[in-house]
Amino acid sequence: MADGQQIWNFPGITASADGIRKATTMVAAEESQIKGNLTTLASIWGGASSDTYQALQLRWNTKSEAVNQALTNLANAIDQAAMDMASTESKVGARFV
Question: Which NCBIfam families does the entry mention (predicted)?
């Protein structure tokens, strides 16, 4: 702030973490639906190209799970940071009472 005052929007910070969780859940649901459709297709597909696809799909699944976990960790870290800052804000405010 221009006047040196810090203002924290704790509900907004928490809403951001919730937004990350919601988006992660939505993407995971879409991905699950797509996997179901591809599994049906892959079950009738054979040969070397099928093996290549299966390896690539496994790689995708692994990386997707890692991204989803990273986003979950980010949302949790944002929540924890908001709680820590709210606690600090409360303690600092109590010093001036």
Answer: WXG100_ESAT6
The pTM is what? 0.80
Using DSSP's 3-state secondary structure scheme, residue 1 falls into coil
Confidence class for position 2, pLDDT limits 50, 70, 90: low
Query: Per residue, what are the HEC states of 10-26?
Result: HHHHHHHHHHHHHHHHH
* Among the listed residues 72, 64, 69, the one whose alpha carbon sits nearest the alpha carbon of residue 21: 72
Listed as own residue / partner, the contacts of 9-13 with beta carbons closer than 8 Å and 24 or more positions apart are 10/82, 10/85, 10/86, 13/78, 13/81, 13/82
